[in-house]
Automatic annotation (TrEMBL):
InterPro entries: ACT-like_dom_sf (IPR045865), ACT_dom (IPR002912), AHAS_small-like_ACT (IPR054480), D-iso_2-hydroxyacid_DH_PdxB (IPR050418), D-isomer_2_OHA_DH_cat_dom (IPR006139), D-isomer_DH_CS (IPR029753), D-isomer_DH_CS1 (IPR029752), D-isomer_DH_NAD-bd (IPR006140)
EC number: 1.1.1.399, 1.1.1.95
Source taxon at top rank: Bacteria
Full protein name: D-3-phosphoglycerate dehydrogenase
Residue ranges constituting the ACT domain according to the UniProt record: 335-403
Pfam families membership: 2-Hacid_dh, 2-Hacid_dh_C, ACT_AHAS_ss
Function, in words: Catalyzes the reversible oxidation of 3-phospho-D-glycerate to 3-phosphonooxypyruvate, the first step of the phosphorylated L-serine biosynthesis pathway. Also catalyzes the reversible oxidation of 2-hydroxyglutarate to 2-oxoglutarate.
Gene Ontology molecular functions: (S)-2-hydroxyglutarate dehydrogenase activity; NAD binding; phosphoglycerate dehydrogenase activity
Uppermost EC category: oxidoreductase
A GO BP entry: L-serine biosynthetic process
Length: 403
């Protein structure tokens, strides 16, 4: 059982103050760190921490989870969770939460701004003006209206971008490995090759799972149309930046906008190294797709609330790795949280232990997901330590908490 007043929270990567305020309002002890921590640093800091908050740079590895002697939940204050060993977290009964919707608008608006800027060659014109060169010409500048946008990855961001791009008069194609419903007049491509060969602008919105590492390289750039524009606001590891530079310097691509990189500096002000530096037709941004004040505030509040509800009520709604269970909070009762291997007979065994010790069940909810089950049981009256010992001693038990 965790004493609410002694819950320790470690927030990394300058998570928004709204998250700090929400967690402190719950009575938790919050430490906020500006930068990301590497594996060795995080292992040194994770002991005694109940809640860990990160963004995209911090890697929560198996070694980190092994060192985390008190950790009950991880909050990813971003969309992606590929920086977390989700299988390891599940094995430890540690819940993981993210913010799958809070910053989609910010990413979409940045993508649209970059598409317009590159199609009109605004960055090049701006640079020349600052050098004192008046290059008033329409050559190479176009309207986005009537041009075709190809979206690789038709998830939350891809679909919203699809709708807004159509409102600008663009034609939209998309490719996704999953079967997705087309919104508006968007056309689904049967293959990525079809999308690349027909699109004036190609934008990536895929996740950073290991299987996606380097999946967009020289072969894919070669299949893009001459004079096309390329964007990546998803994950840095999915693109071969040397191949991208070659496609740009050869004149095959007219421009690119990149917000994410295979290796990124740990903190603000650190040196940024990339093969794409110095190219006039490339927009480089420091992983700011979701970095608007509105998005970061929404993310801070959303994820912090998920962490608080998990600690106080055991609810796992929208958890990335554990079954989704939400049972309304009950007064004057104890709540037993049982994370277990998804095997037949677990519920019957739990209830048999409770019945043997004359424990009255007032409410109960079970859900399973893959290898794991998540059971919330509300009980009234007193119970002996032997009850918890027997529940903990079940061969299927992964983690037991009492609220």
């Amino acid at each position: 059982m965790i004493d609410q007043a002694k819950v320790r929270v470690l927030l990394l990567e300058s998570i928004h103050p709204d998250a700090v305020s929400r967690l402190e309002a719950a009575g938790y002890q919050v430490e906020s760190v500006r930068n990301a921590l590497d594996e060795v640093e995080l292992i040194e800091r994770i002991r005694g921490v109940h809640l860990l908050g990160i963004r995209s740079k911090t890697q929560v590895t198996a070694k980190v989870l092994e060192a985390a002697d008190s950790l009950v939940a991880i909050g990813a204050f971003c969309i992606g969770t590929d920086q977390i060993d989700l299988a390891g977290a599940s094995q430890a009964g540690v819940a993981v939460f993210n913010a799958p919707f809070s910053n989609t608008r910010s990413v979409v608006e940045l993508a649209l701004a970059e598409i317009i800027a590159m199609t009109r060659r605004l960055t090049e014109k701006n640079s020349l003006m600052h050098e004192g060169v008046w290059d008033k010409a329409a050559i190479g500048s176009h309207e986005v209206r009537g041009r075709r946008l190809g979206i690789v990855g038709y998830g939350n961001i891809g679909t919203q971008l699809s709708v807004l791009a159509e409102n600008l008069g663009m034609h939209v194609s998309f490719y996704d490995t999953a079967d997705k419903l087309a919104l508006g007049n968007a056309q689904r491509c049967a293959s990525m090759e079809e999308l690349l060969e027909t699109s004036d602008v190609v934008t990536l919105h895929v996740d950073g799972r290991p299987g996606n590492a380097g999946f967009f390289g020289a072969e894919q750039f070669a299949k893009m149309r001459d004079g096309a524009i390329f964007l990546n606001l998803s994950r840095g590891i999915v693109v071969d930046h040397v191949a991208l530079r070659d496609s740009l310097t050869s004149g095959h691509l007219a421009g690119a906008a990149v917000d994410v990189f295979p290796t990124e500096p740990k903190g603000r002000g650190d040196e940024f190294v990339s093969e794409l530096r110095g190219l006039p037709n490339v927009i480089l941004t420091p992983h700011i797709g979701g970095s608007t004040e509105e998005a970061q505030s929404d993310i801070g509040d959303f994820v912090a609330n998920k962490l608080v509800h998990f600690v106080q009520e055991g609810n796992t709604t929208l958890s990335v790795n554990l079954p989704s269970v939400a049972l309304p909070a009950a007064t004057d009762m104890s709540r037993i949280i049982h994370v277990h291997l998804n095997m037949p007979g677990v519920l019957a065994q739990v209830n048999s232990i409770l019945a043997e010790h004359s424990v009255n069940v007032e409410g109960q909810l079970l859900s399973t997901r893959g290898e794991y089950g998540y059971l919330i049981t509300d009980i009234s009256g007193s119970y002996s330590a032997d009850v918890l010992d027997k529940l903990q001693g079940m061969s299927q038990t992964v983690r037991l908490r009492v609220l």
